[in-house]
């Protein structure tokens, strides 16, 4: 009897397919009624004559020197915006019961809005007070029937300004739970990171706490943003007064913050973002006495974790930076209408473009605060598979309050025909077998479809190698190719 043994290696891929979810970040309101609409674009020339596609500049309702936030639905339609004190509806009018929130427009990050788990018509607004103020961290519930275009939303009176923590620094971030449904909310003070879990039942009453290493108390030590990498594994927090960057790792399954490090730098860090691939940190530093004097820098995450303070100066004059749904990073300068665009943040930000007086109205210091989860694409694979043999590709799908696709289309990046797979509601794990005939690095792309409409695709790479063993032909009859070994009985 003959038995044929061949390699069957599994490439495990976890891809939360967010489809159109990136459009939830498509409306930005900030500064003194400035705004950007990423649903519409136009082509303009930068200050050095480079033709560039940009989001349309808009006027908005938010009037704030620092913090603000907004959220759209999965089609990119605006749902709400706020400065932390007043909530505005999609018509840029004050929402019903939308005044009197206890955030502060002079907080670095005055708040954030988070979709309620398992309820597409409910949202949580978490607000932050300024200057380590007594109002601390609070939440309010907003109800909007998103399927009804006439519903402009309202703030629940019963839950308005519910206390999460009696004191807080001026920072807030929301991260997606690994279960694809819930969220984590994080705030840092001088002593602790506070972590709350948000489920369909609401917030946990007692937060998880993680001790922060000793920090500088140079005033104003309560200033500075906090934000996460796109894959929700890395956290950055700034101590503006102390000129310190606090970096750590985050476990989205447990909410655990680990390996917290503090690094002193030359300038006072204020705001920034990770590149979409998580390999670079982009941030701004401001002069403590004159915020108009500012610089933008980047540094590799790995270098930062090794204690290297040698960042790259990108551009002078940028006050804040934010990653957008197009995976570029956009910047503003306080008290101007200038817009800056880092075209290639994943490659180190070598292409930075200035568009003078592009905004409709003047910017402040702040840009909108968003949850990192809307960008999330995670991938993990085996080191290699063998050319000429079946490779099993396993996909885990996580969907957050978006339209459900009907099929998945697999493109294996090797010139072969694409394969289609039915998408079933409630099923999260999908397998696909494919034979790669040639060795090399292949980019596999999975695109969800609903009818003929394609959603945002997700990609990963798999390494295919030649597994044959070269032997002395004189002894070939004693040693068969290991990738197709025959055992005789």
TrEMBL record:
Q: Where is the PKD domain?
A: 393-447
The record's InterPro entries line, in alphabetical order, gives:
Ig-like_fold, PKD_dom, PKD_dom_sf
Residues annotated as signal peptide: 1-21
Q: Does the keyword Signal apply?
A: yes
Keyword terms? Signal
Q: Record's superkingdom?
A: Bacteria
What name has this protein been given in UniProt?
A: PKD domain-containing protein
Q: Which organism is it from?
A: Flavobacterium frigoritolerans
């Amino acid at each position: 009897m003959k038995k044929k043994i061949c390699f069957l290696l599994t490439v495990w891929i976890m891809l939360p397919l967010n489809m159109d979810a990136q459009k939830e970040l498509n409306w930005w309101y900030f500064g003194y009624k400035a705004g950007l609409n990423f649903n519409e674009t136009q082509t303009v020339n930068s200050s050095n004559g480079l033709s560039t596609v940009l989001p349309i500049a808009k006027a908005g309702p938010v009037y704030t020197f620092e913090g603000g936030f907004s959220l759209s639905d999965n089609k990119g339609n605006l749902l709400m915006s706020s400065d932390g004190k007043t909530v505005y509806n999609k018509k840029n009018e004050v929402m019903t019961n939308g005044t009197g929130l206890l955030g502060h427009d002079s907080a670095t990050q005055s708040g954030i809005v988070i979709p309620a788990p398992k309820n597409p018509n409910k949202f949580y607004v978490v607000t932050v007070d300024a200057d380590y103020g007594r109002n601390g961290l609070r939440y309010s519930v907003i109800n909007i029937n998103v399927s009804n275009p006439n519903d402009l939303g309202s703030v629940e009176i019963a839950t308005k300004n519910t206390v999460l923590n009696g004191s807080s620094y001026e920072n807030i971030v929301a991260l997606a739970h690994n279960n694809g449904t819930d969220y984590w909310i994080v705030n840092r003070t001088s002593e602790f990171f506070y972590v709350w879990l948000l489920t369909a039942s609401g917030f946990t009453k007692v937060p998880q706490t993680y001790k922060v290493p000793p920090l500088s108390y140079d005033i104003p030590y309560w200033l500075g943003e906090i934000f996460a990498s796109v894959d929700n594994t890395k956290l950055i927090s700034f101590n503006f007064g102390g000129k310190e960057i606090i970096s750590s790792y985050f476990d989205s399954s447990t909410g655990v913050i680990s390996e917290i490090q503090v690094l002193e730098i030359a300038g006072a860090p204020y705001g920034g973002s990770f590149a979409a691939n998580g390999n670079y940190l982009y941030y701004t530093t401001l002069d403590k006495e004159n915020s108009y004097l500012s610089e933008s820098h980047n540094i590799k995450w790995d270098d930062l974790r090794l204690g290297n303070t040698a960042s790259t100066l990108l551009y002078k004059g940028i006050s804040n930076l934010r990653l957008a749904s197009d995976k570029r990073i956009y910047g503003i300068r306080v008290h101007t209408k200038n817009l800056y665009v880092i075209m290639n943040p994943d490659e180190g930000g070598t292409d930075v473009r200035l568009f003078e007086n592009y905004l409709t109205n003047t910017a402040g210091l702040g840009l909108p605060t968003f949850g990192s989860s809307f960008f999330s694409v995670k991938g993990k694979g085996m080191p290699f598979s063998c050319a000429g043999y079946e490779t099993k590709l396993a996909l885990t799908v996580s969907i957050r309050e978006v339209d459900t696709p009907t099929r998945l289309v697999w493109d294996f990046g090797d010139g072969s025909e694409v394969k289609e797979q039915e998408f079933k509601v409630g099923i999260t794990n999908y397998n696909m077998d494919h034979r790669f005939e040639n060795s090399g690095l292949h980019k596999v792309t999975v695109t969800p479809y609903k009818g003929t409409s394609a959603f945002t695709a997700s990609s990963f790479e798999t390494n295919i190698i030649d597994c044959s063993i070269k032997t002395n032909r004189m002894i070939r009859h004693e040693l068969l190719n290991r990738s197709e070994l025959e055992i005789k009985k």
